[in-house]
Design brief:
single chain; binds 5-O-phosphono-beta-D-ribofuranosylamine; 8 helices; alpha/beta
Length: 234
């Protein structure tokens, strides 16, 4: 179990939205799902800021269109690569200013240091395109096809210093078809992600998923044991 404590979220009033900071690197379709749900009043969240490590990420446009503060901490500036320590220093300053209850990595492709992760005062969760603990790391769809797996899916887990190894909170699962390619699987998995991420955040915001030992011991016994799996069939 994770030792990370959801202090701010636990102490906030039920009527207050869960303050979320989102870290992105790409298209930001998962961010868009959260924006839409927030704007529709379907999720009790406030996206307090978005950090992108790429200046060409379409996620930046999505955030700006929704009037969400954005910090672009490009990994390459003036032809020079920004080291991870510099990135993390700027990201920490930004997160301190935004005061999130929860940090969400949604398609964020930089590997963060253990020092940064351990110093984070609030929980951080990551969306991973595979059924952890299987298929950590990159190119998951291709490796799943090559291995002849019958099932694939995506996971949301607590971020810890070890890559893709923190406690798995929720998973969505699908059945592979003989016709699946890397591209078709990517699209099918992304459809699952767009459902799993808001559901998981709703469960966190409502206190059903708690991210510290103490709170989970207090959880009523009739609630399901995590990870909570959604099975999709199409
Ligand atoms: C997701 O499919 C995620 O699994 C992977 O990167 C993608 C991000 O998509 N790590 P988007 O930027 O949310 O559209």
């Amino acid at each position: 179990m994770s030792e990370i404590s959801l202090t701010s979220a636990n102490t906030r009033q039920d009527s207050e939205p869960l303050r979320i900071a989102v870290l992105v690197s790409g298209s930001g379709s998962n961010l868009q799902v959260l924006i839409n749900a927030m704007q529709a009043g379907a999720l009790p969240i406030e996206i307090v800021g978005v950090i992108s490590n790429r200046e060409d990420a379409y996620a930046i446009t999505r955030a700006k269109d929704a009037d969400i503060p954005v910090a672009v901490l490009s990994h390459v500036a003036s032809g020079k690569r920004m080291g991870i320590k510099t990135f993390e220093t700027h990201a920490s300053t930004q997160l301190t200013a935004w005061q999130p209850d929860l940090v969400v990595l949604a398609g964020f492709m930089r590997v963060l240091s253990g020092t940064f992760i351990d110093s984070m005062p609030v929980p951080m969760i990551n969306l991973h395109p595979a059924l952890l603990p299987a298929y950590k790391g990159l190119d998951t769809h291709q490796r799943v096809i090559q291995a002849g797996e019958s099932h694939h899916g995506c996971s949301i887990h607590v971020v810890t210093a070890e890559l893709d190894a923190g406690q798995v909170l929720t998973q969505a699962v699908l059945t592979l078809s003989a016709k699946d390619t890397t591209e078709s699987l990517q699209a099918r998995i992304q459809t699952l992600e767009h459902q799993l991420l808001p559901w998981t955040i709703l469960l966190i915001a409502k206190g059903v998923i708690t991210l510290n030992n103490q709170a989970s011991h207090n959880k009523p016994a009739y609630l399901p044991t995590l990870p909570f799996k959604l099975f999709f069939e199409d």
